[in-house]
Each structure stands twice: as C-alpha cells, then as structure tokens.
Amino acid sequence: MNWRNKKFTFMVIPDANGSVKRFQLSALAIAGAGALIGVLIVCCIAAFLLYRDNIERVGQLQQELAAATGDYEKILENKNLHINELQTDLTDLAEQTKSMATRLQDINELESELKEMVGLDPSASSKSPQAYAADDGSEQIAMDGGTGGEELPINKAEMDRLVDRTRDNLQSLDDQLEAMKPKLELTKESVAKQLQALAVTPTIWPTDSRRVTSTFGIRKDPFTRRATYHAGLDIGGTTGDPIYAAADGTVVEANRSSSHGNHVLVQHSNGLQTHYSHMSKIIAAVGDKVRKGDIIGELGSTGRSTGPHLHYEVIVNGEHVDPEPYLKASRRSP
C-alpha cells in the first residue's frame, strides 16, 4: 500500500468527562505540515541571524558615524582656525600695506631732499602723505596709544571689504613703485650731472679762514688811497695757511708777478677760472689736474700786499665777478 494513502488518526481528550475528538490526517498532509514547520523554523533562524547581523552592522555604522562626526568636527575646527589665521594674516597684510605706503612717501621725501642738496628743483618729486595713505575706511591708530573695547567676530562682508581695499592698495603701491624706478633713474642722472657741475663750480671757501678783509667792487686803494676797482675778495689769515682749489680744474698759471706776487690760475671746464694771489708758497704746477679741496699753495703777503691774506678772484668767460655768492660750503663739502 502506498504510504501517501495511509491515514493517521489523532484523538484529542479534553478531560475525563469530555467527549473524545478524532480526526485523521494522511501521511502526505503530515509530511507537508512537517515540511512547512521546518521551513518556518529555517525562516525564523535566518531572520534571527539576519537581524543579529543587522544589529551588529548598525552598531558598526554608528561607531563609524561617530568617528566620522568626530573627524568632521576636527576638520571644521581646523578650518575655522585656519580662517581665523587667514583673517589675522590679511589684517597684518593690510597694516603692512599702510607701512609700505609710508615708506614710499619717505623715499619720495628722500629724493626731494637729495635734489635740494645738489640744487635741483624738488617740487615735482614728492606727494603729500595723504596721497599714499591706505584708504581702508578705518581710523588711524597711534602706535603709542591704547586700545580697548569689546572684541566681536568679523563677518564676511567686513572681511570682503578689507580684502578689496588691501588688493586696491597693493595695486596702487605696485603702480607707484613701477613708476618710481624710471623716475629715480632720471633723478640719478640729474644728480650725477649736478654733482659733475658742482665739482667744476667754485662753491667752497679757498681758505680755512672766513675773515673777509676787503670785498669785491669799488674800494679805496690801500696804497694810493684813491677809488679803484677791486676784482676779487681778500680773505685774511696767517702766513702758511693752506689754500685750496675751489673746484676741479687744470692749473694754467703758477708763477710770480709784481702785483699778484706768487699766484695760481685754475681753468675749470664750464668757462670759469679761479685766481689765487699773494701766496707765500706755490705748491701746484702748470698742467696739474686738481680736485676741489686740493691744496695748491700757502697763504702769504707777496706782491702788492699790506699783510698776510689771499686775494681770490672768480672769472666767468673772461669777466671778473663777485666771488662771495659762490662761497656756499666748507672744503669738506662736495
């Protein structure tokens, strides 16, 4: 007999007084029910294992999320710190821009002073300090003053304005520096030419003494007591005092005459001549190239003289002129 056709009878006895209930199930139904129960058990086990894996995965994800959150917080903290450092650096840069503007103004003022020293017109060389002040919209703070007040965080708009102002100031300074280079080159050329001109211009005193005993022009002759034309400047001193060349030039005369005594005539390259008379001793010789401040003789009272002095003449294109306006500096000056 086929096992699928077998019948199994099940009795259910509720209690002693209750009626017995019977029901029959085929072997196939029992096998199906067992298989179903087995499937359910397997499903439950699988669900349990899956749930446990999910719980572990969720825990792992939570740990990873917590770690990632910590990393992000550190990154954000570092970013904020970096932003604060950049803001501080930018503020420092803005202050350096102001300092550069001040230094640029100092350079212009120095250029102006340099031109004044050599007699050039300084009017076009410098600007007012306000022209170089950094226009940052903020009040200038005195370096020796105090600061105070509540410190507030910088907002983006303020920082953007500071960035724009600093960028504009740096561009302005860059343009000014770019324009300054050829300007300083021209100043250098002008100063070199002026120094060259000064070197051959008799601007220094020819003696250490500054005691003028007789000026240029009409005077009473000390010998005849009549009005005569005095073609130079007499500077009193002590016999043997050094006499200096008043400018660069070439000695064209170095001899003795009855009127000038021992005398030296120096030719300069700009049509000027200087004449030194009544020396006690001549040191320079004809043909010597002398520099401004070189000793060319010693003071004395030779020739037509009433006492130790230097008779000093300045001759421009053959005409005697007053030497006094030329006497602007000591022999130690250029």
UniProtKB/TrEMBL annotation:
It holds the Pfam family Peptidase_M23. It comes from the Bacteria. It comes from Cohnella phaseoli. Residues 58-96 form a coiled coil. The chain crosses the membrane at residues 27-51. One of its GO terms (molecular function) is metalloendopeptidase activity. Keywords: Coiled coil, Hydrolase, Membrane, Transmembrane, Transmembrane helix. This is Murein DD-endopeptidase MepM/ murein hydrolase activator NlpD. Residues 229-323 form the M23ase beta-sheet core domain.
